[in-house]
Design goal:
Elements lengths: L1 E7 H6 L1 H9 L2 E7 L2 E6 L2 H18 L13 H18 L1
Parallel strand pairs: 1-2
Antiparallel strand pairs: 2-3
Length: about 90
Amino acid sequence: MKTGVQYGLEQARAQLPLLVSEAAAGTSSIITRHGKPCAAVVPVGTLNQLTAQKHRSAGVLALRGTGRGLWGPDSSAAVGALRHEWESAQSVG
């Protein structure tokens, strides 16, 4: 992805077709307001990649901390109880 030039908001508004053509050709443009970057016009492929990355990392990170306290202070006792329950169910079935 190539980074193009920065455009002020009014200039970007006046040259929007150019910004879109540049994005279609693979070049990103930054739009500024009062000299500070506030938006970007990027190729759709770049947006799709960023969105996919966000979704991949969010899936695992969303689970962080959800098992805290699940097993208590001694996880071996909890796992042992689950194994016993499983073995009992297997011998009945």
